[in-house]
Design brief:
Layout: H1 2-14, H2 19-22, E1 30-33, E2 39-44, E3 48-55, E4 68-69, E5 74-79, E6 94-101, E7 106-109, E8 117-118, E9 127-129, E10 150-156, H3 169-183, E11 187-191, E12 194-195, E13 208-212, H4 219-231, E14 235-240, E15 271-272, E16 277-278, H5 285-301, E17 306-309, H6 312-316, H7 328-332, H8 338-354, E18 359-362, E19 384-386, H9 389-400, H10 408-416, E20 424-426, H11 431-434, H12 441-446, H13 462-481, E21 485-489, H14 528-545, E22 554-559, E23 564-569, E24 572-577, E25 584-591, E26 596-598, E27 619-621, E28 632-639
Parallel strand pairs: 10-11, 10-21, 11-14, 14-17, 17-18, 18-19, 19-20, 20-21
Antiparallel strand pairs: 1-2, 2-5, 3-6, 4-5, 6-7, 6-9, 8-9, 12-13, 15-16, 22-23, 23-24, 25-28, 26-27
Helix pairs in contact: 1-8, 3-4, 5-8, 13-14
Length: about 650
């Protein structure tokens, strides 16, 4: 595989003006205004018989502006400026590519390189809009440096409002960014930015790869969002979908030139059996140009700081992860799609070569070895992978086990079972767990009680008490033990109730569940602000001590009878009591470094919805008493019960 990568990279470096020019092809393909205000349009449509450009500028004449056929399936059109020297195609003009096929069909298409597409309410198809503002947005703030510890706030712009509507980039900039900053997250992962015709696809059925979704606002408003985030020291990652594409033809890539292939494999190999989408042909020179240029477009035009690559498992294997057994033979056998793997290696190599602080994260459920090792070692080159087993484990525990049956060893194993030297992003829940058909952790814990019993003006009932305490403990344990980065889906930090469901026919096109009720945090008489405060202080404590950037934790205690977990990371001692009924007046804990310890974060504090049973003035001194494979130990007083038996 590495030799294949080297060969492909060498071809890229020899291509045209080198791989830098090749991966910046967005500067020549699509539509571009030249310094003299002439316009150049360029497409790749190898199966087409003829191409024409039509639109507002020529009264939608289908034949007045033909493209000229070039070699290797490329087509070009040059349009001189008007007599007054202004561009022939004005900013915000609508355009279409008219494709004539060898079979005599006439097709109307959007350029695959279109940077802005819109849809009027009465239409089901998007329109290509020529975006060429006279005064484009200019970024004011430099990119922050790559953070030592990555704390990610997974976000969706459209649902980032309590109102039942599609929220805007501007709303996110002015109302959500300050909350993210306050919470202590230093990274935002933006979902559903690449244009997608179907809102309920959560952005994973992409139709226009170079266009920022217009349903939230303009490209300049997205640029402002990222710029303001940078001013706050927050980096922004794009949830990029290069694993597949929408089957849409009139406003997508599918059958752009009239053929079954073009950007995709032809026949069955080009179809995803479960996602009902098209699969890229990563061995194609022009597909590599398109996808690699797409990455650099988002990095340079919008100044994103990196990517979370979606659907990597589907790319890595010919079976797309369907029926994956986990046997090592599947990692290195004929099931592996070498073309996809080489593409991912090229993408990571180029991104990390050109952009020193670029961060790439792989969403892979299979556990492919070396995915997060450098390309020079033969790895795939990602910086992090998502620890996808962790949220599944928490949901399984809450659904299937009584409190007294929680297996401390199994929990610790799940949180620590990751490949050495390959960084993981840990999370207790993401957008996947919030979707309709599942429930957030808060809703699994407290369910309908959240509708009537979250007020601070009434005593907590046992269900709310248990739910609030466990919500905090699950998140802190995952944060401290689960990886080298941490992720939270927007709203879940404060125990957002219910689930997430986009407007669709099945729910009468309702936006009721396609929103985030940040207003709940702002009501002091509701307990959501207590969970918010704990999440904020958990992140701030990590920022001070840096356990995510530290080597993996040493787990000294995972006691099944006591239901206690204790571990040490970055010179911080974490102690959790998961027993449903037992508190411990004195409990010995193994410690590495000797000295004096004090309480720095306590989930039982009243401000976090706890009961305030610990004295924060207490100092804990180590003794030279080896315990649980640690050279020192200390007696910790008042390890309290944190939840109630139901």
């Amino acid at each position: 595989i590495y030799r294949l990568f080297q060969k492909q990279l060498s071809l890229l470096e020899e291509a045209e003006a080198g791989f830098d020019q090749f991966t910046r092809s967005y500067r020549s393909f699509g539509a571009h205004r030249q310094p003299d205000n002439s316009l150049v349009f360029k497409e790749w449509a190898p199966a087409a018989e003829a191409l024409f450009l039509t639109g507002d500028f020529n009264g939608w004449d289908k034949f007045s502006h033909p493209y000229k056929k070039k070699e290797f399936g490329k087509w070009e059109l040059h349009i001189p400026p008007k007599e007054d020297k202004s561009p022939a195609v004005a900013h915000n003009s609508k355009l279409k590519v008219v494709v004539h096929t060898k079979e005599g069909e006439r097709l109307y298409r959007i350029s695959p390189w279109a940077t802005y597409v819109t849809k009027v309410n009465t239409s089901v198809v998007y329109d290509w809009v020529f975006w060429d503002p006279p005064q484009p947005y200019m970024h004011k703030h430099p990119r922050p440096r790559k953070p030592r510890s990555l704390r990610i706030y997974e976000s969706h712009v459209g649902i980032a409002s309590p109102e039942g509507k599609i929220a805007s980039y501007s709303n996110f900039t002015h109302n959500v960014l300050p909350r993210i900053k306050d919470l202590g997250y230093n990274c935002i992962q933006l979902m559903a930015i690449m244009e997608h015709a179907y809102y309920a696809s959560f952005g994973y059925q992409v139709t226009s790869f170079f266009a920022a979704s217009s349903r939230y606002g303009t490209p300049d408003e997205l640029k402002e969002l990222i710029d303001v985030a940078h001013s706050m020291g927050i980096i922004v990652l794009l949830d990029v979908v290069h694993s597949h594409a929408s089957k849409n033809t009139e406003d997508g890539l599918n059958q752009f030139d009239g053929s079954d292939s073009c950007f995709f494999h032809g026949g069955q190999r080009g179809e995803h059996p479960l996602w009902d989408s098209r699969l890229f042909n990563y061995s194609s020179w022009e597909v590599l140009r398109f996808l690699l240029s797409n990455l650099r477009w988002w990095m340079e035009e919008y100044r994103f700081d990196g990517f979370r690559f979606d659907g990597i498992t589907s790319m890595l294997y010919h079976h797309h992860g369907v029926g994956f057994s986990g046997d090592y033979s599947e990692y290195f056998g004929l099931q592996v799609d070498e073309d996809s793997l080489v593409y991912l290696m090229l993408a990571n190599h180029i991104l990390h070569t050109v952009y020193e602080d670029c961060i790439t994260i792989a969403e892979d459920v299979s556990g492919m070895p070396t995915l997060c090792r450098p390309v020079q070692e033969g790895g795939c080159g990602f910086d992090y992978r998502l620890a996808m087993a962790i949220p599944d484990k928490w949901i399984q525990i809450l659904k299937e086990f009584k409190d007294e049956d929680w297996d401390m060893g199994n929990i610790v194993h799940t949180l620590t079972n990751r490949r050495y030297g390959e960084n993981c992003i840990a999370y207790a829940e993401s957008h996947d767990q919030a979707l309709v058909g599942d429930k957030s952790l808060a809703f699994w814990l407290m369910d309908k009680e959240m509708y009537t019993n979250m007020s601070t003006l009434i005593p907590m009932n046992p269900i709310i008490d248990r739910g609030i305490q466990l919500h905090k403990m699950i998140r802190l344990l995952t944060h401290g033990l689960g990886g080298e980065g941490y992720l939270n889906f927007m709203g879940n930090e404060f125990g957002h109730p219910e689930w997430l469901d986009f407007p669709r026919v099945g729910n009468n096109e309702s936006y009721h569940y396609a929103r985030r009720q940040f207003n709940l945090v702002d009501m002091d008489h509701l307990r959501y602000c207590q969970l918010y405060a704990f999440d904020r202080d958990m992140n701030r404590t990590e920022d001070k001590y840096g356990w995510l950037a530290a080597p993996p934790a040493f787990v000294s205690t995972k006691h099944e009878g006591d239901k206690v977990i204790a571990f040490e990371r970055a010179n911080v001692i974490f102690i959790f009591n998961f027993h449903p009924t037992n508190s411990y007046s004195s409990y010995r804990v193994g410690v590495g470094p000797s000295g004096k310890y004090k309480i720095k974060l306590d989930s039982d504090e009243i401000q976090y919805g706890g009961h305030g049973r610990l004295d924060h003035n207490t100092e804990f001194f180590t003794e030279s008493v080896p315990f649980n494979d640690r050279s020192n130990s200390m007696q910790v007083q008042n390890i309290q019960i944190q939840k109630m038996r139901l």
